[in-house]
Amino acid sequence: MVIDWFDEHARDLPWRRPDAGAWSVMVSEFMLQQTPVSRVLPVHAEWLARWPRPADLAEESPGEAVRAWGRLGYPRRALRLHAAATAIAQQHGGEVPHEHAELLALPGVGEYTAAAVASFAYGRRHIVLDTNVRRVFARVVTGVEYPPNATTAAERRTAGALLPADEETAARWAAATMELGALVCGARSPACGACPVAGRCAWRLAGSPAHDGPARKGQSYAGTDRQVRGRLLAVLRASTGPVPKAALDTVWHEPVQRARALDGLVADGLVEPLDGDLFRLPV
Fold this sequence. Notes:
mainly alpha
């Protein structure tokens, strides 16, 4: 039912097309973490046009990856993707590995990303649990509105029990359940009338009880260190050379928070300090 629904309703996304290639899939998976598809689409297109292969990115400095990341947020992902591309170029002949273990061994690649790339790029059978899939399983199988804040062993058991045995079908199932969570079983306003498994949904059949577990993590931004870091990086991305600290001081009014944010960027490897109170993206 879910796969049939997916065949009819799946979005036409560039990393899903038959000619996309594993590198396109990997780039999309890094970019889509905590970022909506609408914001990823233009950056993904620009990235693939500039760096169509992992080796092309590996030849650039990490700072160029951070610059091209633009305003996607969580820019450490750009550094991790650059590190993964470098490892692919040096250790795998420039080709994104097929095997889950080899993907997992790449810098910056965790369990979810390794499973997603192996499944979506190569049609392998893996449990792929992102936020959307976990929410679908929480509602349909467990009967609660939201999954726990962190993935549990029980969720993995549920996902494993539902995963089709055939590799090709399993890969399609992984994409289908993810799309169902993104388009129908939304976090705030689930469209139960459009859901292909609404008649089997334990949460709906129980009367859609409100969440009574631990508070869900918020996504506040305004006034946070994340906002200050973003403003500092915007100045550095716009410059072709080192930027004096005086120019960075103009982006935020509160000096203690501004200094903390800048120190954090340096500690994360996103910014390099130079003599003379100058700063630049990493080279």
